[in-house]
Amino acid sequence: MKLEDFDFNLPESFIAQEPIKDRSKSRLLVLNKTSGAIEHKIFEDIISYIEPGDCLVLNNTKVIPARLNGYRKKTQGKIEMLLLKPVDVDTWEVLVKPGRKARKGDQILFGHGRLIAKILDDTDFGGRIVSFTYDTSFKKIINELGQMPTPPYIKKILKDKNRYQTVYAKTYGSSAAPTAGLHFTQELLEKIRSKGISTAFITLHVGLGTFRPVIVENIEEHKMHTEYYEISKDASEKINFTKQSGGKIYAVGTTSTRTLETASNIKGEIKPCRGWSDIFIYPGYNFKVIDGLITNFHLPKSTLIMLVCAFAGREKVFKAYKEAISEGYKFFSFGDAMLLM
Q1: Could you report the per-residue pLDDT of 187-223, keeping only the tens digit for each?
Q2: Same domain, 127 and 256
Q3: 8 domain-assigned
């Protein structure tokens, strides 16, 4: 399967630069993956498509202010660092820009030396391993010095950091938001529960997989970066009960999808677990757990659009994307949503 099969042209004006005022008023494209039928709705209408006895699975990861701006101690040259995941106490995998100026042994200073990163080694994906020293708790100083790691295609400065968090964000540690969940409000979640739909919260800390482009011509050769996940006893019991009772599982986002498909057995059953996922889902994959997918519109040639195509079929997905563009939908992190069912 070729990378070019997942390419499409998107004018820059279609990329949402900021979130809308009311999260649940985003537009919603509903795609029937069997018939290919398309409907145009508002996100809060999603409640009319999910039935009592179904289960909504949401990723409760919380984004850390993972982007740090500092300078090399030796030369005073500017350095940008993006935290990816912890390796050990005070040791992290990071991305560094410009990478050629961040060599082993270098010290990078942030906040006039309140936080110092020493580069220990390179990684096989072009990042660095660094150790941090600081004058207070790590979480506190990152919250003070760090910026929200919004993607590079978003040019506007985010005024309210909470708009790059889901309203149910809880478990601190992600380098990017699970953006499909940004459309939910607490009010909408309460309406969903009142209808008899259960909600199960799982965790996957989004890492390099979100930022790393696919560069190989044959997509089967692409290797995903590992990301940490956890599924609790409560969440696994809700998911298993739903499936055993004949209900449907709706994954909110590609992160929830990858977590469920990583953790399930061949029968689609989930046990309480934690670990590292490097699952790469592309057309031909046999889904074991999910029956429906709530997601945003994704970048061309990305692993995310490949997952969506695996779930609903490439031709149907690309037809839906074409219609979304003709109807003026907004794309990517702060854009509109899709329901595939």
Answers
A1: 999 999 999 999 999 999 998 766 678 999 999 999 9
A2: no
A3: yes
